[in-house]
């Protein structure tokens, strides 16, 4: 990935990703969407995450991408942009959507998340929603590619393997880790967590 030009990456992802995914929902599953915001301005490509407040009922204190449940009849791309605006103050017009990564199903909460990759060509002034967002984190894409690994986790008495990224600022894992691994695989052309 060394020194990939942001426009070249955008063009490559445009070919690889689905511009308008249609999602078949399993029974008792709610549709949701997140935005994977990529900052394309110099000096290096960065990916934006949110640190959720400790007061939220779902995933308090975790690092995630901006996003949430779709409103009835809402296009999922619109959900991702709406949520990014509500959580971070990102104007939808400032985000260039390039397509969707494969959906991620959260077995614990019964949500099917469709992640959309969006480029921002100017560094935005984030205005985090204090009720939901404790902080905004920006991590260099090159660093995320280097630190990702698979690790076994125990949760509710079950064992499973998940992608984890230990960054200064916290641990990225779970559904966010799986989405990030899928994004890195699209960027890098190799499965995340596997030796290159």
Fold blueprint:
Blueprint (H helix, E strand, L loop, with lengths): L5 H11 L13 E10 L6 E7 L10 E2 L2 E3 L6 H13 L7 E5 L3 E3 L4 E10 L12 E8 H7 L1 E7 L2 E10 L2 E3 L1 H15 L8
Parallel strand pairs: 1-7
Antiparallel strand pairs: 1-2, 1-4, 2-3, 2-8, 5-7, 6-7, 9-10, 10-11
Describe the overall structure.
The mean pLDDT is 87. This protein has a domain at 6-17 and 29-145: Nucleoside Triphosphate Pyrophosphohydrolase, CATH 3.90.79. The longest helix has 15 residues, at 174-188. The protein has helices spanning 6-16, 76-88, 141-147, 174-188, and strands spanning 30-39, 46-52, 63-64, 67-69, 96-100, 104-106, 111-120, 133-140, 149-155, 158-167, 170-172. Helix content is 23%, strand content 35%. The strands form two sheets. Strands 1, 2, 3, 4, 5, 6, 7 and 8 form an eight-stranded mixed β-sheet that branches. It is α+β, with helices and mostly antiparallel strands and 196 residues long. Strand 9 (149-155) and strand 10 (158-167) form a beta hairpin. It is built from four helices and eleven strands.
Q: Rg to the nearest angstrom?
A: 16 Å
The CATH architecture of the domain at 6-17 and 29-145 comes to: Alpha-Beta Complex
Main β sheet profile: 8 strands, mixed
Helix content: 10-25%
Quick one: CATH superfamily of the domain at 6-17 and 29-145?
Nucleoside Triphosphate Pyrophosphohydrolase
The fold-level CATH name of the domain at 6-17 and 29-145 is: Nucleoside Triphosphate Pyrophosphohydrolase
CATH class of the domain at 6-17 and 29-145, please?
Alpha Beta
Distance between the termini: 12 Å
Proportion of strand residues: 25-35%
């Amino acid at each position: 990935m060394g020194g990939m030009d942001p426009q070249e990456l955008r063009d490559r992802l445009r070919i690889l990703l689905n511009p308008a995914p249609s999602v078949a929902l399993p029974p008792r599953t709610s549709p949701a969407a997140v935005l994977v915001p990529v900052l394309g301005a110099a000096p290096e490509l960065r990916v934006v995450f949110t640190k959720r407040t400790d007061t939220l009922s779902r995933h308090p204190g975790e690092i995630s991408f901006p996003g949430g449940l779709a409103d009835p009849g809402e296009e999922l791309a619109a959900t991702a942009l709406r949520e990014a605006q509500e959580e971070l103050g990102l104007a939808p017009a400032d985000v260039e959507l390039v397509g969707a990564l494969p959906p991620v199903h959260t077995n614990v909460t019964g949500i099917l998340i469709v992640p959309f990759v969006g480029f921002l060509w100017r560094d935005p002034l984030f205005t985090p929603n204090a009720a939901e967002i404790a902080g905004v984190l920006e991590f260099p894409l090159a660093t995320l590619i280097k630190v990702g690994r698979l690790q076994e986790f125990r949760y509710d008495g079950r064992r499973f393997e998940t992608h984890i990224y230990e960054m200064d600022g916290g641990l990225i894992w779970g559904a966010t880790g799986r989405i990030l691994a899928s994004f890195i695989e699209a960027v890098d052309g190799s499965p995340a967590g596997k030796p290159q």
